[in-house]
From TrEMBL:
Keywords assigned: Heme, Iron, Membrane, Metal-binding, Signal, Transmembrane, Transmembrane helix
Family: Belongs to the CcmH/CycL/Ccl2/NrfF family.
Function: Possible subunit of a heme lyase.
Transmembrane parts of this sequence: 105-126
Organism: Roseinatronobacter alkalisoli
Record's protein name: Cytochrome c-type biogenesis protein
Heme is among the record's keywords: yes
Length: 154
């Protein structure tokens, strides 16, 4: 009996989390439009919460953005047009998955390029270190030997 209760509790929590932060008064009557709104909202960043989608956020700004998405969909905008409108209004930072064109290509390419530069630098360093001659082991000078003998006699 305890096992069934545990399973039911886990299922209730799992299904409760799918509602996320969307309030009942925000939900559109048309299930197709609501589904599109949820898909779009899942890809937009809450500017208050950082790295949390507007669909998950309880912030007032996230609510305003969710309402704006739904408003644009009701007006007949395509998904791309809605996203473009939001990006134009709030900036490209609002995208959870940044684009790979324009100046952003530098961000996408920089990490692998820097990794390859570091890897090749490490390989060059290791090869040069292996080929370097062994440093000569310098013995004691005559003065140092004499001083050592004096210390050992004491």
């Amino acid at each position: 009996m305890n096992g069934i209760r545990t399973i039911l509790a886990v299922l209730c929590i799992a299904f409760a989390s799918t509602a996320l932060a969307v309030q009942p008064d925000e939900i559109l009557d048309d299930p197709v439009l609501e589904s599109r709104a949820r898909d779009i909202s899942a890809g937009l960043r809450c500017l208050v919460c950082r790295n949390e989608s507007i669909d998950e956020s309880n912030a007032d700004l996230a609510r305003d953005m969710r309402l704006l998405v739904r408003e644009r969909l009701v007006e007949g905008d395509s998904d791309d047009a809605v996203i473009a409108f939001i990006v134009e209004r709030y900036g490209e930072y609002v995208l959870l998955r940044p684009t790979t064109d324009g100046a952003n290509i530098i961000l996408w390419v920089a990490a692998p390029v820097l990794f390859l530069i570091a890897l090749s630098s490490a390989l060059v360093y290791l090869r040069r270190r292996d080929k370097a001659p062994e440093p000569e082991k310098a013995g004691l000078s005559v003065e140092e030997k004499r001083r050592l003998q004096e210390l050992l006699k004491e």
